Amino acid sequence: MNSLPTASPIHGSTTSLQNLLAKKQYDSSSAGSIIDAFMVRLQQLQCRDSHSGVTGFKREYKELCHSIDKAPGYDAALTPQTTARKAKNRYQDVVPFEKTRVKLQLVSRETRDDYINASYIDGGYIACCAPVPAAIGDFWHMVWQCHVHVVLMLTNFVEHERLKAVRYWNPRGYAVTYGNLQVQLLDKKTQIEGLGFIVRRFQLSHKIGLKTESRTLLHLQLTKWPDHGVLRDFRVIASMLDTVNCYRDDASRRLKVEAKVVVHCSAGIGRSGTFIAIDILLKQLHRVLIGRKCETEGTQEIVPLDVSKVVYRLRSQRPGMVQTPEQYQMIYHFLAAVISGNKPW
């Protein structure tokens, strides 16, 4: 298998963040105060209520979930479901918002529908459920249509004797055709540095008339993060983040496109939302350290390292992102580990 590209410090890899933080080489006078404010907030949230015993993490998480899930018009904002659409959902209680859902340009021949259970997310991500058999062709067409160059699979096929995902490729390397798109597994590496994730490469070939265009896709599968749970080994997240961002950035430069990353677990909200939130916050941290402003949201500049605002934003783009208080707390702890030098890599 070809070697993976080396992570670039320009985009806030965990290695470059480690170096900046260790040397305290902040190019921004406000960086120290922003980091201190985050660590103070972390300490506050670790305290338990004297009466209920509930941590601040759980209380903050429940409050932000309630502010979105119980907002007027929430149900009306969800994508309307038909029988055909329901057949393409892994879970009937997890459907995208209409305003952020991915709309297929090559509609299904059977239903003439542009529906796939997938949502556009900040940071160049698409979050989706693990494709059911009826949606595998739609999944690969979405990958091609949206210039996806990395797929991140954060689930096993079966967990606790429950089916969480199906294999949406031929494991023997035979090419599978979906309309004018052909998908073929090129190779597979079972682990990187003993961290327990599988790396695959696929070739996608898209034919229009006599012309065929091909792309190579990187597929990473993490098999040790339990559904609804947290990942204890932060080294895995750090390594996957660096690999994902490096490969995406390299594809964007070479091909002069905004390469996207598809992330899915089983439902495409819990583990997927947690991973994306961590990536967004680490990039905010990097911008703080080098003295750059974070992106704006509308007319307001984003306040960096505000976990609640990042998760609120994700849940406004796809229902249920970051599924449990424990996953919410994991985001804080990962960021704190990076800042404090308790290396998660």
TrEMBL record:
Protein name: Protein-tyrosine-phosphatase
Taxonomic superkingdom: Eukaryota
Example of a GO MF term: protein tyrosine phosphatase activity
PANTHER family: RECEPTOR-TYPE TYROSINE-PROTEIN PHOSPHATASE (PTHR19134), TYROSINE-PROTEIN PHOSPHATASE 1 (PTHR19134:SF449)
Coiled-coil stretches noted in the UniProt entry, renumbered to this chain: none
PROSITE patterns in the record: TYR_PHOSPHATASE_1, TYR_PHOSPHATASE_2, TYR_PHOSPHATASE_PTP
Segments forming domain Tyrosine specific protein phosphatases: 238-329
Domain Tyrosine-protein phosphatase: 57-338
